[in-house]
Amino acid sequence: MGCLYRRKDSKYYWAKWYENGRPIQESTGATTRREAERFLKLREGAVAKGAPIPPRLDRIPYEELAQDLRQHYVTTGTRNIKEAESRLAHLDGFFQGYRAVNINPTRITTYIAHRQEKGASNRTINIELALLRRMLRIAHENGKLLRVPRIRMLKEASPRKGFFERDQYEAVRRHLPDDLQVAVAIAYTFGWRVLSEILTLRRRQVDLKAGTLRLDPGTTKTGEGRVVYLTPELRHQLTHQLERVDRLAKKTGQVIPWVFPHLTGRFQGERIKSFRRAWQTACRKAGVPWMLLHDFRRTAVRNLVNAGVPERVAMKITGHKTRSVFDRYHIVSPADLKDASQKLTGTF
After folding, report:
1. Is 138 exposed, middle or buried (0-12, 13-18, 19+ CB in 10 A)?
2. Domain count of the chain?
3. 151 falls within a domain
4. 102 and 73 in one domain?
5. Do 278 and 180 contact (CB within 8 A), yes or no?
6. DSSP reduced 3-state for 149
7. CA 248, 254, 257: angle at the middle one, nearest 5?
8. Is residue 7 part of a domain?
């Protein structure tokens, strides 16, 4: 049996146990007896199983915990690793060089202040804190951390309520080039992300004969694939868009796999990655300079629900994995409230 004791020259509890009859003494890296007892049990458990003795817990670096989290996402597929990396980059930049035992509530509060100074919203910070919490829980499960520090989430602002009424959408669309009109039509109809899901479409993902549009697994934020059936209007628009791409390919002799390549200019034939200036100009001319591309997601959710599409089906179309996130996008407009009042009036 092992035992715990205190040394005058250390603020931590020390543990003593036996391996093959040989006494071993080691700092637990814990300042409370409860945590020290957990440390000792881990050591004795490893000896009983004949497993390798884990490293001293007070020496395990943050980088090892971050790598364990990345490996967890890769092997389980529970999160898109590319999306997680963009969040982990901020955690890595701050906690790099820290030991796991030093990631405590005080240090986490300092991280929050650091991100707020950089202009990150509370929602963005909460997403990063959730990753950190998951990382620390995995470390605890792996015996690399005696306890998971409490992480308090921030109060988030109310979700943005921007969405397009039909006349606003049509006004903006009229001021965009023909190919971009097709891109925003897809966003307006299905709520797909413009930059990462629509502009990245390849021709093989469009099946005009079957009338479908497909996103491959692993290419979306959630990592899940999607298939939607085109409306007659969208099928017509995509037919003309692919004809434009065919004419460009024939003219230049290029093999163009993209649905939305640059049709003119020095990047002709290459995929369009963004159209920020064209978008801002179109919104200004349409009289709605405050609108964002991301507002199409809220718009599509609202339109689908109002059209009577079951919410679980609407979530499949837009790519919302959880009900809580879907609800953030299901915004009720003044027009919706007015329509409800008119319907009620007819019942009295």
Report:
1. middle
2. 3
3. no
4. yes
5. yes
6. coil
7. 85
8. yes
267 shares a domain with 185: yes
The answer as to whether 316 is a domain residue is yes
How far apart (Å, rounded) are the C-alpha atoms in residues 215 and 64? 34
In three-state secondary structure terms, 313 is: helix
**187-213 as b/e, with b when 16 or more CB fall inside 10 Å?**
bbbbbbbbeebbbbbeeebbeeeeeeb
Residues present in the chain in total: 348
Question: Is 6 strand, coil or helix?
Answer: strand
Same-domain pairing of 51 and 112? no
- Give me the CATH number covering residue 275: 1.10.443.10
User: Apex CA 79: angle with CA 73 and CA 83, to 5°?
Assistant: 105
Residue 254 lies in a domain: yes
**pLDDT tens over the chain, length 348 residues:** 789 999 888 888 888 888 777 888 888 877 888 888 888 887 777 767 665 555 566 678 999 999 999 999 888 877 878 888 989 999 999 999 998 888 999 999 999 999 999 999 898 999 999 999 999 999 988 878 878 999 999 988 665 567 888 999 999 999 999 999 999 999 999 999 999 999 999 999 999 999 999 998 877 777 788 899 999 999 999 999 999 999 999 999 999 999 999 999 999 999 999 999 999 999 999 999 999 998 998 888 888 888 888 878 888 888 877 655 555 555 545 555 455 445 544 544
321 lies in the same domain as 207:
yes
Residue 279: give the domain boundaries.
Answer: 166-344
Q: How far is CA 182 from CA 139, 156, 216, 241, 273, in A?
A: 47, 34, 20, 7, 15
**What single letter denotes the amino acid at residue 271?**
R
**Maximum Cα–Cα distance across the chain:** 88
